[in-house]
Amino acid sequence: MSIIIPVGPGDVAWRGLVEQLSQLASRPQLLLVFADGDAQSNDVPDHCVALSAPAGRAHQLNAGITAADGQWLWLLHADSRLQPDTWPALREYLASMPRALGWFRLAFADDGPWPMAFNALGANLRARWLSLPFGDQGFVLHRDDAARLGPFDPALAYGEDHAMVWRARRIGLPLRCVGGTLSTSARKYAEQGWLRTTARHLRLTAAQAKQESRRT
């Protein structure tokens, strides 16, 4: 397995995630994709692969996927954190050799405001009932299916992960819940305001879903 982690300029959250992943017995390939010019790319553990790409999650994910050696690809945000059930669920999921776009249940860390529990509930219901998981739910897929899907679209101003889900639906690639949980940071909700950030995400998601559904 290759684990691909795009790192935003100056973002140090990847260090905690790499510490967790480094403790996995199977020792997957860890690819950290930094934005061009980020000095952190010179300060990664020896067992990690440091890459550079133009800033932007789509560019960075595409660079990581191109460089990956693994048969399976796991796309993680730098501020994702494994929970006790994450890795066991993933091992069991991969044993079934799924040809699908896999995703995890989402939880938020306690670095945000108290209503984040509602955001987690909404994200999980959206993923399960509408088959619309987002990238912070840790996409897992076979490299052949990644080739079928094609690259993430760097031209999009937002929602490159959301657009990829719609593309999976268009080519008939199933979306499946892996079964475990990933947590992610809620700090932007604390910094930018819970109501304002939640409303903006809902508005942008609805607009993009309307556009993508027409194409589908």
Task: Provide a descriptive summary of the structure in words.
With 216 residues, the chain is an alpha/beta fold. Helix content is 42%, strand content 21%. It has 8 helices and 8 strands. It has helices at 14-21, 57-67, 86-95, 116-130, 143-149, 160-171, 187-192, 194-215; strands at 2-7, 29-35, 48-53, 72-75, 81-82, 101-108, 140-142, 175-184. The strands form 2 sheets. Strands 3-2-1-4-7 form a 5-stranded mixed sheet, sandwiched between helices. α1 (14-21) links the parallel β1 (2-7) and β2 (29-35). The mean pLDDT is 96.
Number of strands: 8
Rg on CA atoms, Å: 16 Å
Low-confidence stretches: none
Sheet with most strands: strand arrangement: 3-2-1-4-7
What do the pLDDT scores average to?
Answer: 96
Distance between the termini: 31 Å
How do you describe this structure in short?
This protein has 216 residues and is of the alpha/beta class. It is built from eight helices and eight strands; from the N terminus they run E-H-E-E-H-E-E-H-E-H-E-H-H-E-H-H. The strands form two sheets. The chain has a five-stranded mixed β-sheet, with helices on both faces. Strands 5-8-6 form a three-stranded mixed β-sheet, sandwiched between helices.
Please outline the helices and strands.
Elements lengths: L1 E6 L6 H8 L7 E7 L12 E6 L3 H11 L4 E4 L5 E2 L3 H10 L5 E8 L7 H15 L9 E3 H7 L10 H12 L3 E10 L2 H6 L1 H22 L1
